[in-house]
Write a structure and sequence with these properties.
mainly beta, 5-stranded mixed β-sheet, 4-stranded antiparallel β-sheet, 34 strands, globular
Length: 426
């Protein structure tokens, strides 16, 4: 089984195989837009392997999926409520609130590297059902759905990350492949493919070992790992089309498996010294060149951490917008427009008037480092609003501002209630 972990260790003879179980791939994930929740990671000590959750201070808040005897590839969904991971060659889904587990795949094929689509309906993963490793997609809402082989080639493919259209380029699945390379070489590349299996594109196309793609929550940029001239893994970023490459780490350690924060400002990754019996540790750094990384997971000489996945905080628990603003509204691009509708829940006033009529609402989308207003609407006599906007998937929010209720002569600060999104064909 060709995997990024095997390829990385093959180029690092100083590492001891016993310290890190072989046969594992890079985590399959995208970072969904939202508040920064917990960072999930694999914890290992040479005997047991578990998925653990780390809070912003690096404190361990429990395990997910029980103890494992292998490295488990995993990913959280866009709502921060579910996690999928591989166990014994099958995919398992976990409800993060109830800890209830649901098997997703079973059978003789080895299925690994699961990742959710943006709306949580589809799952992309790696399977050797056709002999070699290919990227497959299945519909989680349809038990009778036949998984579709998206790559369907003779080369090994792995580590899919499902990204949605944020800049007009269409929905894309990033993954790692040996297609076009000597299968015995270390020349893996980062590719993208559309959800229907068309448009396969090699983004890195070099003689280095590139792996571990992870989508920025704007879906217009990727972080990934690539080996330097000394054979050490370093964190890089690039645009969705393979342009604009930047190197973020340059030290003498192995830096790999990046995961963007849901707010798009930071990257969590694994840092591992190139020493005998060394163990990995999760670090966090700003997502731009020239910045220092700080440790997140606890320091240890025997317990290691690997494969970070940054959860989008469910329920607006952390990093929420200021009062009067919503958490981002998440849209799935289906080549359609969307109608955003909702209402306001103002505090009212002491004279018996309402604050819901005529409330100015700004529909904003995160673009080029900040939220930009793409449409304005005011609430009607019922205190509700509805507005059609172009569907550009990404991080959105609805913002209401302080206004004066002329009829009652009172000033209100209205808070928008959760918006409803309806999709229509153009």
């Amino acid at each position: 089984m060709a995997s990024a972990r095997v390829l990385r260790l093959a180029g690092a003879a100083a590492l001891v195989a016993a310290a890190l179980p072989l046969g594992a791939s890079t985590p399959a994930a995208a970072s969904w837009p939202g508040g920064n929740g917990d960072v999930f990671a694999v914890q290992y000590d040479g005997t047991d392997t578990s998925i653990v959750r780390l809070d912003a201070n690096g404190q361990i808040g429990g395990t997910v999926g029980g103890n494992l005897t292998e490295f488990s590839n995993f990913a959280t969904d866009a709502d921060g409520e579910r996690l999928v991971y591989s166990r014994g060659g099958d995919i398992v889904m976990v409800d993060l609130e109830t800890a209830e587990e649901t098997p997703i795949t079973s059978g003789e094929a080895v299925d690994t590297d699961p990742a959710f689509s943006f709306d949580g309906r589809y799952l992309v993963y790696v399977s050797n059902a056709d002999g070699d490793q290919d990227i497959y997609m299945r519909d989680l809402t349809d038990p009778g759905f036949t998984p579709v082989n998206l790559t369907n080639n003779e080369a090994d493919d792995w580590a899919p990350a499902f990204g949605n259209d944020g800049t007009g380029h269409g929905d894309l699945i990033a993954y790692v492949s040996l297609e076009g390379s000597d299968p015995n070489s270390l020349d893996s590349d980062v590719w993208t493919v559309a959800p229907d299996g068309t448009g396969k594109t090699n983004l890195t196309n070099n003689n280095d070992n590139d792996f571990g793609p992870n989508w920025h929550p704007s879906f217009d940029m990727l972080a990934y790992s690539s080996q330097d001239d000394a054979g050490r893994d370093q964190i890089h970023t690039m645009s969705w089309d393979g342009t604009g490459k930047d190197q973020l780490t340059t030290d003498a350690n192995f830096n790999y498996e990046p995961a963007w924060s849901p707010d798009g400002t930071k990257i969590a990754f694994t840092k591992q010294p190139a020493g005998i019996n060394s163990v990995g540790r999760i670090f966090v750094m700003p997502g731009e060149p020239g910045n220092e990384a700080t440790p997140l997971s606890p320091a240890s000489t025997t317990v290691g951490f690997d494969r970070a996945d940054w959860q989008a905080g469910p329920g607006c628990e952390v990093d929420c917008e200021p009062p009067g603003e919503l958490q981002p509204v998440l849209f799935l691009n289906l080549r359609k427009h969307v109608v955003v509708s909702g209402g306001v829940e103002g505090p009212g006033d002491t004279t018996g008037g309402t604050c819901g009529v005529g409330t100015p609402i700004q529909i904003q989308r995160y673009s080029k480092g900040r939220f930009r207003t793409i449409a304005d609407v005011t609430t009607n006599e019922n205190g509700t609003f509805s507005r059609k906007v172009a569907d550009r998937t990404g991080r959105y929010r609805l913002r209401s501002t302080q206004f004066t209720d002329e009829a009652n002569g009172t000033t209100c600060l209205a808070a928008t209630s959760p918006a409803r999104v309806h999709r229509h064909r153009r």
